[in-house]
Amino acid sequence: MSQTKPVLGIESSCDETAAAVVSASNQVLSSVIHSQIDEHADWGGVVPEVAGRSHLRMIRPVVEQALKEADLKPSDLGGIAVTHRPGLLGSLLIGTTSAKALAFSWDLPLVGVHHIEAHSYAALMPLEKMEFPYITLVVSGGHTSLYKTTDALSMELLGSTRDDAAGEALDKAAKMLGLGYPGGPAIQKAGAQGDPLAFPFKMPLIAPQSLDFSFSGMKTALLYTIKGAGGTTSDPWIVSKDCLPDLCASFESIVARTLARKCRRACEQTGINRVLVGGGVACNTRLREVMAKEAAKAGFSAQFAPPAYCTDNAVMIAGLGGEKLRRGLVSGLDLDVASTG
Ligand code: KG4
Ligand code: ZN
Q: Which end of the chain is less crowded, N or C, counting CB atoms within 10 A of the terminal residue's CB?
């Protein structure tokens, strides 16, 4: 019999400890996220060992809270889904080991979920009807990839970043500009009133047909803009600090335009006219606006994951895990973790 009970999802691949319960019709019954941002802020980025220890402390209260908010007992669940790749190994191990222990003691099926497939699924979850195929863009701190998605569980890679991910580029740019971590939201805030055309950064399109991304050159362009050619001037900045909003808006805009242009290319090359966008950078307001314009011009539709489920969360894990369990896909207690996709 097909699995019709709600599924508990657990996510711990990076710096969020999250648990959620999602019904068989993809209704969100609870979603709890403990973000470690404050624990890593002083270091300007995620420290793997700090992340692992924090997951260890938080996983139990977060899971308990998710069940409480859903008003469910373990016996009401149909299974447990957990992120098992890709991510920080120490962090993944805390989530998967906890999920295994709970599945064993509660006598529930366990299913391992791929974090990137789950980011894509977050954009599918609100849809009344999933109409495959889609072009999926996953833009996060660790990934910038385009896929041809023919099913919730079948994603063919069309292109990915050759260096920095889009989120990583925003994080590094924010650091350069003296803004906080994580950089994406900081740049969005600082650039909200800025002129996106003030600094004419070039779109890194690589080659006319390429679906790959490369953001590291833009970082250098930003460095040279504020520090001069070679980026070595001892003077802190060669442009006025008053330019900060314009710098942020211009940098954010070029990232957004590049992402939108590559989606358009992927649609043209595959003949697919529906695009899904997920991952932390999909929260970005400018990206949403730029993508909507590109979509209207080129005749494709763009469906973004809801902002709350763009950054790391367990709703997408429970959702995709439920989809897998309903197809009879179950993992053993020997489920392994992996740092890469
Ligand atoms: O998906 P995610 O939470 O974690 C990974 O799987 O990597 O993505 C985190 C990334 C960070 O680089 C962060 O700066 C970026 O998403 N991000 C944003 C925004 N919110 C988070 N980038 C641009 N605008 C935002 N509002
Ligand atoms: Zn993620």
A: N
Q: Are residues 236 and 292 in the same domain?
A: yes
- Going by C-alpha positions, the residue among 295, 312, 261 that lies closest to residue 83 is 312
| Claim to verify: residue 231 and residue 270 sit in the same structural domain | yes
| φ and ψ of 77, to 5 deg | -85, 155
286 phi, psi to nearest 5 deg: -65, -40
CA of 136 to the centre of ligand 2 (A): 14
Q: Are residues 317 and 292 in the same domain?
A: no
Per-residue confidence of the chain (341 residues) as pLDDT tens digits?
467 999 999 999 999 999 999 999 999 999 999 999 889 988 878 899 999 999 999 999 999 999 999 999 999 999 999 999 999 999 999 999 999 999 999 999 999 999 999 999 999 999 999 999 999 999 999 899 999 999 999 999 999 999 999 999 999 999 999 998 889 999 999 999 999 999 999 999 999 999 999 999 999 999 999 998 888 776 778 888 899 999 999 999 999 999 999 999 999 999 999 999 999 999 999 999 999 999 999 999 999 999 999 999 999 999 999 999 999 999 999 999 999 97
CB under 6 Å to ligand 1: residues?
Answer: 14, 140-142, 167, 170-171, 182-185, 188, 279-281, 283-284, 311-312
Instruction: Check whether residue 178 and residue 48 sit in a common domain.
Output: no
Cβ-contact 235, 175 below 8 angstroms: no
Q: How many domains does one find in the chain?
A: 2
Output the residue whose Cα is nearest ligand 1's atom 14.
184
Residues 287 and 322 in one domain: no
Residue 104 domain flag: yes
Dihedral (C-alpha) 111, 113, 119, 124: value to the nearest 10 degrees? -40
